[in-house]
Structure formats: C-alpha cells, structure tokens
Amino acid sequence: MPDLKSILETALYVDDMDRATTFYEDVMQLPSLMTSERLCAFNVNDANVLLLFIRGGTLEPVDTGHGIIPPHNGVGQLHVAFSCTHDMLPAWQDHLQAKGVDIEGETSWKRGGRSIYFRDPDGNLLEIATSPGLWSGF
C-alpha cells in the first residue's frame, strides 16, 4: 500500500466570507493564497492550506476547465487544530486575548502537550496545540 505524506488541505464552512476572511487574516495571521465568492485559501506555514467555503455554496459539482470537483459541504461546529511550539503558546494566548477572542478551554495532555480552544465567527472550534506532546510522534 502506498504511504500518504501529509494532509494538504483542510476545509471549514462559513456563512459570511468577508467576516471569516478578516478573522483568519487578522486573528490567525494566515496569508491568503486566493479568494473568490465561493472559497478562500490560506497558507498555513508553507506546509498546509486551510480552505474556507461558503456553507451550502459547494452543493453542486464545479467544472474547473481541467476537471470536475465533486460536491461537498459541512454543517455544525466543525473543528481544526493548529500546532505551535511550547514556548509560543503563551504568545498565542496573549494575542487572542488582545483580539477579543475568548478562550473556551485549556487542556494539558499526558504526553506533555497543551491545547487552547476558541471559536471563529461561525462557531467552528479552533485549537492551538503544542507539538510535540499531543499525539505519539507529533
């Protein structure tokens, strides 16, 4: 069986693209790779891409001119975790507080990692977790 290298893209679904784009650029400090009415793509440390789609806006196949992207969607309070070094977590806590973002929870993991949890403007649960220390080997 072939090995997978990594997760390239992660998607969240939002109701207001302008509001979400502002949050991810300003609060999460992610540079935008591209923006359209349908989606916005963000660079996560030159290693991953976070995609934001308008909720319900991807229910039909999309012809890119080079192929078809099948329909997809997400509802509810979805979750994505970002990683940072152990020494950067306090800076993230201070940054989120300065931006008026409420930290809803904190967890200390048995492998030595720590996580903080908060929400984006659409209610998606975001986590910043220290690495290594959350999962074995990560």
UniProtKB/TrEMBL annotation:
Keywords carried by this UniProt record: Plasmid, Transferase
Gene3D superfamilies, per the entry: 2,3-Dihydroxybiphenyl 1,2-Dioxygenase, domain 1
Domain VOC: 6-131
EC number: 2.5.1.-
Domain of life (superkingdom): Bacteria
GO terms for MF: transferase activity
Descriptive protein name: Metallothiol transferase FosB 2
Gene from which this protein is expressed: fosB2
